[in-house]
Every structure is written in C-alpha cells, then in structure tokens.
Design goal:
Blueprint (H helix, E strand, L loop, with lengths): L12 H4 L17 E4 L7 E5 L5 E5 L1 E3 L7 E7 L1 H11 L4 E2 L5 E3 L3 E4 L9 E5 L11 E10 L3 E2 L5 E7 L1 E3 L2 E3 L7 E4 L12 E4 L2 E9 L6 E8 L2 E7 L8 E7 L3 E7 L5 E8 L3 E6 L2 E7 L5 E8 L6 H4 L4 E9 L5 H5 L12 E5 L8 E2 L9 E2 L4 E2 L8 E2 L8 E3 L5 E3 L1
Parallel strand pairs: 1-11, 2-12, 6-10
Antiparallel strand pairs: 1-4, 3-9, 5-8, 5-10, 7-9, 10-12, 13-33, 14-26, 14-32, 15-25, 16-25, 17-22, 17-26, 18-19, 18-25, 19-20, 20-21, 22-23, 23-24, 26-27, 28-29, 30-31
Length: about 400
C-alpha cells in the first residue's frame, strides 16, 4: 500500500480567506476548523503510481485546527468535478470507471485533538481495457463533514493514475532513409488532402537523442507559409540547443539545454499573433508574428537535401508526431506526453510511429494521412528538383527498448 508521504497540518491563510463561498454559505464561521483533502493545498492533481493491480492509495482529510471533537468526513466519487476542471483548464483527463476501483470506506474520522483523519484506502482493482493514450484520474470530493466546515478550494482531489507506458519508436539514426512526403505531387499525399490550418494550429513531435553532433536535423513540418523545422547545433550554437526554423517566421533558438538518453515533447503553437514553443509542456520561447497562417503540406524526416543527410545526421528516435488545427495550452500538452486519443478535437493527423515493422507510417486519426515511405522523395542534386526515393523504404528501422517508456 502506498501511504501519503506528507500531511499538511495547516492551510495557508490565503486559502482560508478564499472560503467565502463554501458549503455553509453565509453561515461560515472563521473560528471553526476547515477540512480539506490532504495534499491539495497547491494542486488538486495528485499522482497515484500504479505498476500493477491491486494498487492502493491512502486518502486522508486534514483540518486547519486541532479538532475539538470527532469530525466525520464523507468522501464521494465526483466525475462532475473533473468535468468542470477539464473545462476550466482545457485538459482531457478521463474519470477512471467506478468498476475499476473501490474505497475501503466512504468516511474518515479526524479524532478529537487531531489534525488529520484515519485513512480511506483507494484501491485500483483492475486496469484491464484502459487506453494507453488516455490519462485517467479518480475524482474524489468531500461532500460532508460534521462539526466543521469544508475548505472549498481544496475539497476535491484528482488521483492521477501514474502508469508507465512502453512504446515503439522510429529510429532516425540511418540517414539513408531521410526523405519527405508532400501534397500536390504525383507521388505522396493526394492533392485533396491538404490541410488548411488557418491562423490557429499546433505541431508536435516527441524525440530522443542518442548522441549530439555538430548539426543534427530532426524533421520538418512543411507549410505553405511557415515551416516547423527542428534541428540541433546550427549556426554556431551549442550542439544541445534546438533551433526552430520557421521560414517566413525566421530562425529561433530555444532556451532549454537538451540532454541525451531521454525523451522530450516539442510543441509549436500559433494563435494568430504569436508562435509559442514548449518543451514537455513548459513554455520556452515566444515569437510575435501576424503572418503565421498556414496550409500544412507534408513531413520531412531528417535532412533530405543533396549531400547533407550524412553531414546533418540525427542520431536518435521520434514518436508521437501530431498536427492540430487549434492551439493547445500548457496543461493539455503536459497531459498528453504519452499519447492522445485519435478522435481528439482538432487533431488532423497523428503518426504514433508504433508499427514496429514495414515502411508505412499509419495516421491514427483515420483521416487518410498514411505515409508509404516507398513513395517518398528528396532533392539529390542542387537545382535538379525532388525525385522519388523508393530506396528510402529499405532503411526504415524501428526501436523499442528500456528507454522507450513514458510515465504518466
């Protein structure tokens, strides 16, 4: 059983001052203790590590003052609170079905003279049938407490299932497979599949570096106006500096110093006035622009031009490449580091790169953007134009090992 590691004995005064709207309304009495779910003083999201089932978590309630008498605290499953949280934060957290967990009791008691309750054990009995692309939480709220008041801002906890997801990835270490798939051509995507993103969109790619080189070009989201090309070490910058090359939006170096042997989610958003770049959901760089409207025109993996593939080899892997026709917020990005549902609103194309064999990269959305790498192309000689590169398919390689894991 996993026990709560710390007990908060007193809530900050700032929180106490926020209780004008609480379960007792105008009858609120400041001298009475206020009860809240332990651990929610800074955030309602609390990680619940689940390696196997059954897995248990000790849920407790805390009081801002020592109890004069026994305080009986009632807990209840509260999906409506999660729905309200998702709407406010722009997240897509899903409630764990009630059949997948159980509570040892619906009530905990803060004994007279004490500041926290005896634990109520939350036990996950099964994870069978859960979607790896979904982040599940158990929303639990205090619905009643006798002899005290409820501290409204901290009456609900969202126990987030922290599962470890193992996944497949595409190995980009062999530069002979570098090429692109584009629209409006006799090969590649059909012309009627172009995606007009307008002035509100998001590009995402999950990447892993085995080793830094002088210049490492990872990939490019080609657009009619703006590119989303990512490379490391260009222009004399440190080899662990990521550069976004936006064509009409210029070239910009992220502040973050990257490391080898770990996964990162790189996200580029445009909201009509500025580009924002995130690393694992943390905002890194903002670039003002009123000229970012775009039509998505294809994907390039690695450096596919002339004799540069070997010189700008990307020694690493990618997974989870996504194209959205809306702007994602930081909370939503952080909640989807391991994956997203293929039918998520605004998700236009989604390559998980989890096939594990072959040379066709399937679009998980079903929107028709499967990439057959035997139909890829690249410019092999300067000025000669792009030509088919069916041979690139012979060098497609896959990778799955102990490093390919994602902790929710």
């Amino acid at each position: 059983m996993k026990l709560l590691k710390s007990i908060i004995l007193a809530a900050p005064l700032a929180l106490i001052a926020m209780t004008a709207c609480n379960s007792e309304g105008d009858n609120f009495e400041y001298h009475k203790p206020q009860v809240y779910i332990t651990g929610t003083d800074s955030s309602p999201i609390v990680k619940f590590k689940v390696d196997d089932t059954p897995a248990s978590y000790a849920l407790t309630a805390s009081s801002t003052h020592k109890a004069d008498g026994d305080i009986h605290v009632t807990f209840a499953y509260d999906p409506a609170a999660l729905e309200a949280y998702n709407q406010k934060q722009g997240t897509t957290l899903a409630p764990l079905p009630a059949d997948n967990f159980e509570l040892s009791s619906s009530e905990g008691v803060i004994k007279a003279g004490g500041s926290f309750s005896d634990p109520v054990n939350v036990t996950i009995t099964s994870t069978e049938g859960l979607d790896d692309a979904v982040t599940y939480v158990i929303p639990l709220s205090i619905t009643n407490c006798s002899g005290s008041q409820i501290l409204e801002p901290s009456k609900t906890v969202f126990l987030q299932l922290a599962r470890t997801i193992n996944f497949m990835s595409l190995d980009l270490s062999n530069y002979s497979m570098y090429a692109g798939m584009y629209f409006n051509e006799e090969f590649g995507f059909p012309e009627d599949k172009t995606i007009d993103l307008g002035a509100s969109y998001t590009y995402e790619v999950k990447c892993y570096l085995n080793q830094f080189r002088s210049i490492s070009r990872m990939m490019n989201f080609r657009g009619s106006n703006i590119n989303g090309m990512f490379r490391f070490g260009e222009g004399g910058y440190p080899v662990n500096s990521l550069q976004w090359c936006g064509a009409g939006a210029g070239n910009h170096v992220l502040k973050y110093s990257f490391e080898t042997n770990r996964w990162y989610m790189i996200t580029l958003t445009y909201d009509g006035t500025q580009f924002t770049l995130y690393v694992d959901g943390e905002k890194d760089t903002e670039v003002a622009s009123s000229n970012g409207a775009n039509v998505f025109k294809g994907i390039e993996l690695g450096m596919s031009w002339e004799n540069y593939p070997s010189q700008q080899r990307f020694n690493g892997r990618i997974a989870e490449v996504r194209v959205w026709d809306r702007v994602l917020g930081a909370a939503e990005i952080k909640g989807s580091l391991c994956g997203v549902k293929a039918d998520s609103p605004g998700l236009r194309a989604y390559w998980k790169f989890n096939e594990g064999e072959g040379h066709i990269f399937h679009d998980a959305t079903g929107n028709g953007y499967d990439m057959d790498w035997s139909k890829s192309k690249r410019e092999k000689k300067e000025g000669a134009g792009e030509v088919p590169t069916p041979e690139a398919a012979d060098y497609v390689q896959w990778k799955k090992d102990a490093n390919n894991k994602c902790a929710q």
